[in-house]
């Protein structure tokens, strides 16, 4: 149903061949269509809630496992552990990121219903590497970086069952967003801690 780890391991060299931005890796078809359907059903079986940032409520629906940042309080806290069905996917994401599976300390499940997207942002500095898996409808991830008075912009397609990896320059120096689409899309995003995140988690 899912490709074995050796399948992803065989294509890691392709992940960084000619990145549009330094630190950006993409890989298509890391899941079979059957595996994609299983993951979508698993995400939809969980109570997803609208993303909240202070007084603002987003259209996308989310649920976190593992360590999570509370955008209301600005605090880092430990949530429910990742369920068993998610662990093989986390392990494959870790292979893509070149890190240990337990270094991916957060899993964020998302559903973007028609018209939902995500605005320009950089992930919180408590996090380092980001690995995402796209499910359902195709979408576009947009990247931008200020250069003088202008923005440098790059658009990257997110195909169903594909994986993307953000590290280094694209993770820390570029903003990214996802354009709204007229179909439903799901995603699973894994994150590792930065040195700052590790210090805060140790004191939590």
Q: How would you explain this protein's 3D organization?
A:
The protein is 21% helix and 42% strand. By secondary structure, it is of the alpha+beta class. It has a single domain, classed as Sandwich (Jelly Rolls), CATH 2.60.120. The N and C termini lie far apart (38 Å).
Write a concise synopsis of the structure shown.
The protein is α+β, with helices and mostly antiparallel strands and 204 residues long. It contains five helices and twelve strands. It is globular.
Annotate the secondary structure layout.
Elements: H1 5-9, E1 24-27, H2 33-44, E2 49-53, E3 56-70, E4 75-78, H3 87-97, E5 104-112, E6 118-121, E7 127-136, E8 139-147, E9 150-158, E10 163-166, H4 168-172, E11 175-178, E12 185-193, H5 195-203
Antiparallel strand pairs: 1-10, 2-3, 3-4, 3-5, 5-12, 6-11, 7-10, 7-12, 8-9, 8-11
Please work out how many helical segments DSSP would assign.
5
Mean pLDDT: 86
The backbone outline, from C-alpha atoms, is globular
Beta percentage is 35-45%
CATH homolog superfamily: Alpha-ketoglutarate-dependent dioxygenase AlkB-like
Number of strands: 12
Helix content: 10-25%
CATH topology: Jelly Rolls
CATH-scheme architecture: Sandwich
Cα separation of the termini: 38 Å
Largest sheet: 8 strands, antiparallel
Task: Sketch the topology as an H/E string, one letter per element.
Answer: HEHEEEHEEEEEEHEEH
Instruction: Supply the helix-strand structural class.
Output: alpha+beta
Question: What is the alpha-carbon Rg in Å?
Answer: 16 Å
CATH class: Mainly Beta
Number of separate domains: 1
Unreliable sequence segments: 1-17
